[in-house]
Write a structure and sequence with these properties.
2 domains, 4 helices, Nucleotide Exchange Factor Grpe, Chain A, domain 2, rod-shaped, about 55% helix
């Protein structure tokens, strides 16, 4: 029995499971360095070199994209900043303009409420009641000076051209002496505060005779 087994084993061919480690001609076991490293090293180096070149090219492309994206972002942020600055300047301008307009409106309203007192002082002066140095005269001077300080100006003078934007015609008198509508008399003076009309002047107007 033993001899048969030995004979069978001698007749059987060895089973090669790892061809990479067995030389097919000699049947010898190859050294790992010679089999795995020595033959494959050039190919591995070529693969590594190709991979490095590909990685380098990809890195350059990515860097170009990143640079362009950064430039676009900076340009967009700069545009947003300039637009925000312009909006802020416009907002401040509107606020200042509205504040000035509101201030003038308040002052005009206060002055308008005191105009009857100025009218009374003007009538008293026309009748000769304002004597130089008298208490009423001093009060009139101070009151008019305070109004002039805020830019109040009287409008409506006899002989000047009639302007419907500043004058209110109470009476119209045909006259051969005028070629355009002209103020013949001032019934009640008007006032302007800067460019704002506080009260139009009530006047009698001479109109050209037909």
């Amino acid at each position: 029995m033993s001899d048969n087994n030995d004979e069978r084993h001698e007749n059987e061919e060895p089973v090669i499971r790892d061809k990479r480690r067995i030389d097919p001609e000699t049947g010898d076991v190859r050294e790992p360095d010679a089999a795995a490293v020595g033959d494959d090293t050039p190919a591995a180096e070529a693969v590594d070199a190709d991979g490095a070149d590909a990685a380098e090219e990809l890195s350059d492309a990515d860097q170009a994209l990143l640079d362009q994206a950064a430039q676009d972002l900076v340009a967009e942020m700069r545009s947003d900043m300039l637009r925000a600055q312009a909006e802020l300047v416009n907002f401040r301008t509107r606020v200042e303009r509205d504040r000035a307009a509101n201030r003038e409106a308040v002052i005009a309203e206060v002055i308008r409420s005191l105009l009857p007192a100025l009218d009374d002082l003007a009538r008293a002066e026309a009748h000769g009641d304002l004597i130089e140095g008298a208490p009423l005269t001093i009060i009139a001077q101070k009151l008019r000076g305070a109004f002039e300080k805020y830019g109040l100006r009287q409008i409506g003078e006899k002989g000047e051209a009639f302007d419907p934007a500043f004058h209110e015609a109470v009476v119209q008198l045909p006259s051969p002496d005028v070629t355009v509508n002209t103020i013949a008399d001032v019934i009640e003076p008007g006032y302007v505060l800067g460019d704002r009309l506080v009260r139009p002047a009530k006047v009698a107007v001479s109109v050209p005779a037909e």
